[in-house]
Design goal:
mainly alpha; Four Helix Bundle (Hemerythrin (Met), subunit A); about 65% helix; about 0% strand; globular; binds flavin-adenine dinucleotide; oxidoreductase; ALR/ERV; flavin-dependent sulfhydryl oxidase activity; flavin adenine dinucleotide binding; Sulfhydryl oxidase
Length: about 110
């Protein structure tokens, strides 16, 4: 994947992707079936391969090797997602997010279809 030189696009892409990422994990089943667990694991690995910022993708792939996606439940997946975003934050010297408030920042909205 090519280097994404434009830092504004890289940041906008990052914010949008994180929004999708955490919202998806907030709505992931509390008790996922095996195929749902497999789908989430595959999605995250494919995201790390196809993410359209080469340097980000490379680093994310290394993080996933060390911290594989946790797919056993909504809580496990959301906390894992928060922790992996924090590892990216640390690398970029951004503030670390308090993962205790993940459900407030990304409510599941589960009553809605
Ligand atoms: P972002 O990090 O985009 O976060 C958006 C919002 O999410 C924050 O304002 C906050 O409200 C919330 N948030 C922050 N931390 C957490 C958390 N731990 N859990 C839940 N919510 C949180 N950029 C690079 O320059 N180099 C890279 O190597 C790089 N790798 C990336 C890898 C991935 C997979 C992704 C999705 C993005 C990557 N980025 C990278 C982009 C970078 O992470 C930021 O998205 C971008 O710099 C914009 O930062 P931001 O300060 O607006 O906040």
């Amino acid at each position: 994947m090519e280097h994404l030189g434009n830092s504004t696009i890289k940041e906008e892409l990052g914010r949008s992707t994180w929004k999708l990422f955490h919202t998806m994990l907030a709505r992931y089943p509390e008790e996922p079936k095996p195929d749902e667990r497999s789908a989430l694991g595959q999605f995250i690995h494919l995201l790390s391969r196809l993410y359209p910022c080469g340097e980000c993708a490379e680093h994310f792939q290394l993080l996933l090797q060390e911290y594989p996606p946790q797919t056993s439940s909504r809580a496990a997946a959301s906390q894992w997602g928060c922790a992996i975003h924090n590892l990216v934050n640390e690398r970029l010297r951004k503030p670390v997010f308090d993962c205790n408030s993940i459900e407030v920042q990304y409510p599941c909205g589960c009553a809605e279809p």
